[in-house]
Write a structure and sequence with these properties.
By secondary structure, the protein is α/β, with parallel strands linked by helices. It contains 11 helices and 13 strands.
Length: 350
Amino acid sequence: MSVKITAVAKQLPKYTRTTEEIVPYLKLWLSGQEERFQRKAIKIFENAGVDRRYSIMDAEDVFLHTSFEEKNDVYIQECTKLAEQALVKALNKANLKANELDYIITVSCTGIMIPSLDAFLINSLQMKQDIVRLPVTEMGCAAGVSGMIYAKNFLQANPNKRAVVIAVESPTATFQLEDFSMVNIVSAAIFGDGASAVILSSYEDEAGPKIIDEAMYHFYDATHMMGFKLKNTGLQMVLDKSVPETISNHFPNIIHPFLERNQLTIEDIDHLVFHPGGKKIVQTVEALFGSLGKNIDDTKEVLKLYGNMSSATVLYVLERFMDKQLPKGDKGLLLSFGPGFSAQRILLEW
């Protein structure tokens, strides 16, 4: 029995500014810092490969002295709206009603809410009262693909069922006003806010790319590389500068054995559906696969248009491929990285 992806939809927050428009706010925030440091921080923003970012808060609010409680309240209110809008869009694409879903997975790591997001969606959209719920919090950027793996395993064990994975993130809600470290500045330059929803099905007569295989890969002794530290001021980003190099070193073990167990090589993959972690990671991947005639143009374009929206971002890339009406038999490799450190992979066939 096959599991297919039947629809993907994205939803962006209402506030948006180009990098050029953000720089004046950045200069104001940096005004007490040494001039050379200010120039370096602005250059990081300008060279991040991100032309525009979206946010649940206007730039003025991001750079105001709001408390962790105030930011988290905005996160709960706005991310709940974004998640519902993304889900409704995906349901419309799949020509489904909310009460036709059997499994709901919500993923987010940039705020705290209990009850979790799925409980609010079940109420507002009057989903089935026996719908199976799974909120996923601590998997960061990898959680979008992780959620799809969990959904696939549920559907494979349950014929004629449907699942939805909803990823919603607000990295801007984690921006630390008193933290002038390079990590805080780099993460602010790379990340933006957004939501996405993907519907999967184990109905044989429903169309969409089929999940052929999936796997997780865990890096040893790498828990320090990425994540959040919970402080009185909120969630402080942890982002080690060794991330791109470490990913590069592990790539052969991440990609080749996974494809080999499916009697494939990288040459057999038509489409690379990769999470755009940041400019350096994109350059690392291009260096590894460019010589093989593979491109990650859609990954780069998503980073440029929206920034890295953590778990939601790879679904923005996937939606672009879903909208292309690809030829039957084409194969795609879905890949994202996250805290732990880990890599999540899904092999697709159209």
